[in-house]
């Protein structure tokens, strides 16, 4: 029976661990981004914060949304709107 090379074993375990740790961090970032988006939408006092929301009559907000209009309040409607700095600040604030 061939003996395992200890260096190769450590390298394989470390590679597997790093591979598992990165997606966990990414999932954490995604969850934080969704929380920031949800909080941003909830803080908007009007009916149409984002294009995908509906107004009181049940119509899609689309271009009438605060997100789509220049100037004024611009909520974060998508995870891509949340910056890495905001994710870092959210983590620091907890």
How are the SSEs ordered, and which strands pair?
Layout (H helix, E strand, L loop, with lengths): L5 H38 L40 H10 L1
Report on the architecture of this protein.
By secondary structure, this protein is mainly alpha-helical. It is built from two helices and no strands. It has helices at 6-43, 84-93. It is elongated.
What would the keywords be for this entry?
2 helices; mainly alpha; 94 residues; single chain
Based on DSSP secondary structure assignment, what is the total number of beta strands?
A: 0
What order do the SSEs take from the amino end to the carboxyl end, as H and E? Answer: HH
What portion of the residues fall into strands of 2 or more residues? under 5%
Q: Structural class, judged by helices and strands?
A: mainly alpha
**Uncertain residue ranges:** 4-21
Give the end-to-end Cα distance, rounded to a whole number of Å: 52 Å
Name the shape in a single word: elongated
Over the alpha carbons, how many angstroms does the gyration radius reach? 22 Å
The number of helical segments is 2
Oligomer: single chain
């Amino acid at each position: 029976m061939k003996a395992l090379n200890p260096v190769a074993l450590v390298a394989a375990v470390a590679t597997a661990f790093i591979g598992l740790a990165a997606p966990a961090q990414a999932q954490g970032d995604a969850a934080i981004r969704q929380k920031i988006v949800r909080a941003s939408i909830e803080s908007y006092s009007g009916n149409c914060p984002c294009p995908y929301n509906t107004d009181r009559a049940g119509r899609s907000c689309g271009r009438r949304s605060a997100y789509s209009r220049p100037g004024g309040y611009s909520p974060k409607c998508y995870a891509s709107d949340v910056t890495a700095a905001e994710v870092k600040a959210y983590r620091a604030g907890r």
